[in-house]
Amino acid sequence: MIALDDAQRRVIEGVRPLPAEPAPLAAAHGRVLAADVGARRTQPGADISAMDGYAVRHADIAAAPARLAVAGTSAAGRPYPGRLEPGHAVRIFTGATVPHDADTVVMQEGCTAEPGAVVVHHAAPPGRHIRRRGLDFVEGEVLLPAGRRLTARDIGLAAAMNHATLPVHRRPKVALISTGDELAPPGSVLAESQIVSSSAPYLAAALTAEGAEVADLGLVPDRLEATVEAVRAARMLGADVLLTTGGASVGEHDLVHRALEADGVELGFWRIALRPGRPLIFGRRAAMRVLGLPGNPVSTFTCALLFVLPLVRALAGRSDILPQVEPARLGCALPATDQRAEMLRGTLADDGGLVATAFAEQDSSMMSLLAAADCCIVREAFAPAAAAGAPCRIIRLGL
Ligand SMILES: Nc1nc2c(c(=O)[nH]1)N[C@H]1C(S)=C(S)[C@@H](COP(=O)(O)OP(=O)(O)OC[C@H]3O[C@@H](n4cnc5c(N)ncnc54)[C@H](O)[C@@H]3O)O[C@H]1N2
Ligand code: MOO
Fold first, then answer.
1. Does residue 276's CB lie within 6 angstroms of at least one atom of ligand 2?
2. pLDDT in tens, 78-114
3. What is the CATH code for 20-43+136-169?
4. DSSP characters for 254-290?
5. Quick one: CATH architecture of 4-17+170-315?
6. Which of 26, 37, 126, 305 has the most crowded Cβ, counting Cβ within 10 A?
7. Which of 254, 271, 280, 296 should be mutated for ligand 2, with most atoms under 8 A from CB?
8. At 5, is the secondary structure helix, strand, or coil?
9. ipTM given for this complex
């Protein structure tokens, strides 16, 4: 058995972000920029009115009230063509270009319109209600640096900067193989000896949320040829990551090792000091990384949280790859751990600080408690017994 952090390091070792590709804005959300993105225009491109009112020369209204002749109109997208002559105003609307030689906008609420003229009742400081050219950004300014994970707001900014596509790292392609004679797809009519495969639906959801492209290769019976065939199919798809579930342990039906080797996967470690999740297999075949996840669905989950999702994030170009560990206090006493680190499912409360309480039942087959959990309490190997109230570390379980 190897230690948890050693195993995490080996899985991530040498991972390079996948190559860049242009993604339309609508498909770029949550993905990671592969290059700096600069503005392709100056925004605003001209001085723009921030209000509906009149564009004036400040000198003409400094001693308001003032009566000015209205020379024309500037509307958004339809600028007034001329210059503003002394003693004149131009009717202007929000978003419209301020005419040449106008330097101030007065709001219409402070004016009285007359036929062909306007009375400006109050003086305003020069430059009032004008958004200067380049207020937001200027052409060439880099506002979205390489490595940034794009938020929805970033997508809006990229559009404003006049980009229709963005250079992002390719999505990691992840193939899923679920092994086990006892498995049936959700919605099946089942014999008592069967179980519904829950791990692939969980993995597909978790991976999709992380931006991976998931290819579910379905259920594979406990036969070597069928398992080898599925591994080959994943390889032919060009998967960056192959995940198998089940068959990772020592039973005679646990064919995953043999199948991986038969298809040329170079096996790395097998078995890690983690509960649940011990029989994790790691291997590589050229650029494809393979994780043979233990069959118990909560063990699958734990290994996904600690290994699979970090790997996928690294391939996607992210730098924040490991789950965030936070301090909390225990809401229950916990016994000493043995040589395996533990990921205990539990609830989280806030009494001014975070209080994490482990469920009394921690069986790695129980999906009901996994779904009910707010957090995992992370315990190191060979940790002493801990009393309620003692400090602990947790990983919050989100989506
Ligand atoms: N003699 C030993 N037995 C076991 C050991 C061991 O070290 N020595 N390790 C135990 C641990 S820890 C785990 S974890 C499991 C993992 O074994 P496998 O990876 O070989 O998993 P299976 O035996 O195929 O299945 C275990 C369990 O999980 C259910 N399962 C499998 N796939 C799915 C799925 N897609 N969805 C839902 N449930 C699934 C399966 O029906 C079994 O009940 O081995 C222990 N045994
Ligand atoms: O470690 Mo197994 O992964 O506990 O059920």
1. yes
2. 999 999 999 999 999 999 999 999 999 999 999 999 9
3. 3.90.105.10
4. --HHHHHHHTT-EEEEE-BSEES-TT-EEEEETTEEE
5. 3-Layer(aba) Sandwich (3.40)
6. 37
7. 296
8. helix
9. 0.98
